[in-house]
Design brief:
Number of domains: 2
Bound molecules: 2-keto-D-gluconic acid
Radius of gyration: 21 Å
CATH superfamily of the largest domain: NAD(P)-binding Rossmann-like Domain
Helix content: 25-40%
Largest sheet: 7 strands, parallel
Strand content: 15-25%
Distance between the termini: 21 Å
Shape: elongated
């Protein structure tokens, strides 16, 4: 393909923006808001992210679109069915972020159970001078349920074995080669688990999978950790369970309406709130960027993606 026109849906960090601008014939959608309605037919390739996505409405405005290269592993914000129906290929950035996201999951398990973030606040606010921080919950040797057992879920399990945890997982179909115990019934997994970690894709199929019933099953000593998508959890039910003390705690990297986080959670010491930073390290974000460019270049040169969906 000779010099295709690439649409960049939203702003990335400067290094990423500059490389796109330098190496491609680029349209920045946030700078030319009417471009799609006026000249959408010019666009050959979309560069987007799990955050910005590419909607069915946007797709309809780009009749000559051939490929979508997305930064991130999640694709719930991309109109995948509409794209596939038109033969538009999609790439994401799988694998390169597994380790950092799995590290974040384990970090949240530890921080939520041991309340390190709240203990840190205790020190900073001078409260240690008036007394010890209350006792918290042990992590090692506990029961860990993992919901979604793809590459990230397996990396979480691998790390948890180092903490002598007993591990079971739930997904749509059993993975007989995984070496871990499958639990077909999500409620039974939540009842069994001390920690329930969500590592499944977002989207319609998992919307509010974790509802009031599952939270009640996890119980007053149970901890929920979400590094997947905010939409997987019924956030109102989560807030209610934490307020009522019927759920032991929550470690959350993702929310239903980011960057808005329910203020009711702010004062809770048994809740850890992260601003969607699972993959946000220098090393991993560079690897994700490079994979976007590798996909773009492979598609422009050979009409093939390296990591197609
Ligand atoms: C990023 C993510 O925050 O990969 C994903 O699906 O949610 C994260 O790694 C996201 O890609 C940034 O838009």
């Amino acid at each position: 393909m000779s010099r295709p026109t690439v649409l960049q849906v939203g702003r990335f960090p400067p290094r990423f923006n500059e490389r796109l601008q330098r190496d491609y014939q680029l349209v920045r959608l946030w700078e030319q808001k009417d471009f799609l309605s006026e000249r959408g037919a010019d666009i050959d390739i979309v560069v987007t992210s799990a955050r910005y996505g590419c909607s069915a409405e946007q797709l309809a405005q780009m009749p000559n679109l051939k490929a979508i290269c997305s930064f991130g592993v999640g694709y719930d914000s991309i109109a995948v069915d509409e794209a596939k129906a038109r033969g538009i290929v999609i790439s994401t950035t799988p694998d390169v972020l597994n380790e950092c996201v799995a590290d974040t999951a384990i970090g949240l398990v530890i921080d939520t159970a041991r309340q390190f973030a709240a203990s840190d606040r205790h020190v900073r606010q001078g409260k240690w001078l008036n007394g010890q921080y209350p006792l918290t919950r042990k992590v090692s040797g506990k029961k860990l349920g993992i919901v979604g057992f793809g590459r990230i879920g397996k990396d979480i399990a691998k790390r948890a074995t180092g903490f002598d945890m007993e591990i079971r997982y739930h997904k749509r179909r059993e993975d007989p080669d995984s070496g871990y115990r499958f639990e077909a019934d999500l409620k039974a997994l939540a009842t069994w688990a001390d920690f329930l970690v969500l590592a499944c894709p977002g989207g319609a199929a998992t919307h509010h999978l974790i509802d009031a019933e599952i939270l009640a099953a996890l119980g007053a000593n149970g901890i929920l950790v979400n590094i997947a998508r905010g939409t997987v959890v019924d956030e109102q039910a989560l807030v209610a369970a934490l307020q009522a003390g019927t759920l032991g705690g929550a470690g959350l990297d993702v929310f239903e309406d980011e960057p808005r986080v329910p203020e009711a959670l702010f004062g809770m010491p048994n809740v850890v709130l992260l601003p969607h930073v699972g993959s946000a390290t220098e090393e991993t974000r560079l690897a994700m960027e490079n994979l976007v460019f590798d996909n773009l270049d492979a598609f422009i040169e050979r009409g093939e993606l390296i990591t197609p969906l």
